[in-house]
Amino acid sequence: MTARCLVPVVIGLISALSAKSVAEVTPHSSRSDRWVDKRGEYSVEYSAGQEAWVERVFARLEAINATIDHPEPLPTPQPAPLSVSNIEARKPELLEAISHQIGLTSPTDLQERTFETFLGYYEILTEVFQEAALVAWDHLRLRHLAIWHREELTELLRRGEEIAGFNYDLKTDKGNYRLETHFTPEERQQRIDEIYREIEQLRVNHSFDYSDEGFTAGVSFGKGRQENNVVSPESPKREAIVSDLPTHVVPVFYDGDFDREPDEKFIDRTFEIMQAARLQLVSEMQSHQDPTIVRIIIHETTEIGLIENRIRSKDRRWLCDGTADYTSWRVVRDLFGPDKASQVFDLNSELRRSARWQDEVSLKRWSPTSGLNDEGEESELNRAHYAFAARAMFMIAERYGEDALALLWRDMADDGVDKASVRAFARAFKRRYDGNLNKLIREAEKAPITQVSRLP
């Protein structure tokens, strides 16, 4: 697998620049109007007439180089609430809270193994980010710069000329600069392989697919083959960790007359932004936290608990997935606070994202096997069903108390898992709260999206 980081202008400190380096000035490889002044491993691109700016930039590099340690130490990571280490440390509390939400007195062995399975994938992704931090700290040092007069650069971009690192939108007349860093976790592969073996030993039949486009995950109660696509040891995309890293050329902008004298404020501003951005990026990589994976862990642990102990009927899907997403939000809110809960699952955002599909949502007809398009990918309509199923569960909690779902699922134990169905849940809802489940479903499906959840 090739892990990818897309970052805004992110470059940092240099580690060496010899004052004795001999300048080697050559024409730019692809632009006839530009030159490159190379001194050792460092270079500055410029246009004719900007030579004084080049000297100031090299002098600034020398000054920075004199103030840093070699090799430059990595920053100390800060603990993150939803990091894999914290989720693992609080596993007993999380499992207890999950089991409570579905009316169980304690988590089952299968729930615990499911939790550990998806926690393993979180650990793999964390290992990738740890390796990314090491690579970025060294690679995203300030080595190659380009002096640009802002009006000159803007005019080139407006004419449609391609300049590495820049994107420009003619409609808004705005542009931005960003870097792409490709790497593979070769140095971490031994640990990643070990985690995979630990996942296999848990013997949970599951699927896990997580990429830039989104995620799909699932657990089956029966036997079958597990599938995943996360940093697989057999992945054909494995490459050298450094050999394909591109050369990043970071812009130093200035305004005013093209031939004005160099102004330190423009150079210093660029260096300060780069240094701060590099430090922030690497610190975030080191203390990586991914609310999406936390949602997967809790969602799948909740759902397998329901299928194992509460309901296995073919009409169960909206009940199970709605409860699982409500539980993801509720458990994180109770243990980590409302801000983190909204990162894990934000009902209002999910509903707004699915608004275009509202008229086509039918929770009762949502089959456990539906949701894939012809290419085997999850459809947008299927994703919308998750949002509206969760809405129904939030409505129950808002109207009948935050423990209402837990009590209803506890009532379902009386029917037995093999006889349980949505109809049985409707009877339990009627007995306990004198509620009409069909009416609630229709309201969850049809009420305007502007009607947001009131739960904190």
Keywords, separated by commas or semicolons:
456 residues; alpha/beta; Neutral Protease, domain 2; 2 domains; three-stranded antiparallel beta sheet; 11 strands; elongated
Notes on the protein architecture:
This protein has 456 residues and is of the alpha/beta class. It has helices spanning 51-65, 84-89, 91-101, 109-139, 150-158, 189-201, 264-286, 291-309, 317-336, 338-344, 347-353, 380-400, 404-412, 422-433, 437-446, and strands spanning 3-8, 24-27, 35-39, 42-46, 144-149, 166-169, 174-183, 206-211, 214-219, 227-228, 250-254. The strands form 3 sheets. Strands 2-3-4-5-11 form a 5-stranded mixed β-sheet. A 3-stranded antiparallel β-sheet has the order 1-7-6.
**Low-pLDDT residue spans:** 1-20, 223-245
Which CATH architecture of the largest domain? Orthogonal Bundle
- Strand content is 5-15%
CATH class of the largest domain: Mainly Alpha
What is the mean pLDDT?
84
Number of strands: 11
What Rg is obtained from the alpha carbons, in whole angstroms? Answer: 27 Å
Q: What global shape is seen?
A: elongated
Distance between the termini: 39 Å
Number of helices: 15
Sheet with most strands = 5 strands, mixed
**SSE order, one letter for each helix or strand:** EEEEHHHHEHEEHEEEEHHHHHHHHH
CATH topology of the largest domain: Neutral Protease, domain 2
Strand order of the largest sheet: 2-3-4-5-11
Helix and strand composition category: alpha/beta
Count of spatially separate domains: 2
Question: Summarize this, please?
Answer:
47% of the residues lie in helices and 13% in strands. It is α/β, with parallel strands linked by helices.
